[in-house]
Amino acid sequence: MTVPRIVLGVSGGIGAYKAAEILRGLQKEGADVTVAMTRHATEFITPLTLQTLSGKPVAIELYDTGRGSDIEHIELVRRTDLLLVAPATANIVGKMASGVADDFLSTFFTAVKCPVLIAPAMNTRMWTSAAMQENVRRLLARGVAFVQPESGPLACGEEGEGRLASPSTIVAQALRLAARGRSLAGMRALVTAGPTREPIDAVRFVTNRSSGRMGYAVAEALSRRGARVTLVSGPTSLGTPYGVSRIDIETAAELAAEVRRLWPEADTLWMAAAVADFRPDRPPKVKLSKRSGSPDIRWVATEDVLRSAGKSKKPRQVLIGFAAETGDAAVKARAKLREKNLDFIVANDVSKPGVGFDHETNAVTLIGRKGAPISLGLASKAEIADRLIDLVHGREPRVAGAKTKTGAAGSARARASAPPASRSPRSGDASVRRRAARTAARRGSRR
């Protein structure tokens, strides 16, 4: 059993007084909690209260020479499994979305690579404003999770959506996300992403519209959960995710060579790269001239990298393919699943709006060897990646002190039939609600 290490960020709203209850709820479930506060938060609840409950100094100032060296802050970044901001005001959400780092909490957010969970609390007009919803969308696209605020009477006297979610709901979702940070520790993951380029002559090439975002999102999400990730990437403009080892390739042949080299030692392969099916045969090493007329290009098939990986797959390995199709995507993908000896395939219809190439969003269907297909609606590629990994590699280690009936969540194949996670901060998460209800019931019985 592992002890989740959580940093609880408290910003300056009336809901700050509930931070004490959230803190105690996390501790009762076995979490090790450190508190960080904004200056405005100290007007609603004193640092002494949270320091007494946590048993640790409360971080407020970015340059606090009285607490010790800045090395402590750096070490806190390294060892944190989850950053939970509750309550989160419009101000701190805006800072996080814009990359503003002008106090300890906002600076800490820019530095951490662990999962981040935000529990907003504000006036209804502020929560539903276009600026706030745009900030939420931007953070969701980066993989940040939200706890949907509740509807009801607000401190300002109005009634509506914007009230801080119940502490039991926040605690339940926080523990689930904190477990993600260690759930794939020790796994060796190989991910391919981006397009390939096949030369036509010395200066021209044929490629496709893949941006690489989906594969990069998968690589980042795997790394965030503790996996050792190697990313084999075609040409993209994307930066390498933190903690990921990246190998750049250009052609389908180069991609195939890297997969042949790395796949035997990997535990899982996510083949998200958009690999060319054909290439020009014997492209000239000089530029073709227009004066020579239309070139006669002979096309030859490239190696089917996914099929080759399926043929060499060992029983312990999990192989996931991607199928970008136009029309009947699920039917075509299921055929590929059988033909190429895959464990799972992720299908999407790139002819639909907002899906696949050139988009930051995606909508996919996960198909396994057994069970019904699972459709994931339109969401950011970071969200889609996290949900896919939940379904394929759904390991949630038991939290020290938590009262659960089962330990690990089971094998990848068994998880394929599990329900998908929540699709947006507004849709809720049934599993979290059920867990929160059980937590509330236990607390009621203790009283």
Give the tags.
single chain; Rossmann fold; 5-stranded parallel β-sheet; 2 domains; alpha/beta; 33% helix; disordered C terminus; 8-stranded mixed β-sheet; elongated; 447 residues; 15 helices
Q: How many domains make up the 3D coordinates?
A: 2
Percentage beta strand: 15-25%
Secondary structure: helix percent: 25-40%
- Report the major sheet: 8 strands, mixed
State the separation between the terminal residues, measured CA to CA: 27 Å
CATH superfamily of the largest domain: CoaB-like
Question: Which second-level CATH architecture of the largest domain applies?
Answer: 3-Layer(aba) Sandwich
Strand order of the largest sheet: 12-11-8-13-16-17-18-19
The count of β-strands is 19
Query: From the helix content, strand content and strand pairing, which structural class follows?
Result: alpha/beta
Can you tell me the CATH class of the largest domain?
A: Alpha Beta
Within the CATH hierarchy, at the fold level, what is the topology of the largest domain? Rossmann fold
Number of helices: 15
Rounded mean pLDDT score: 85
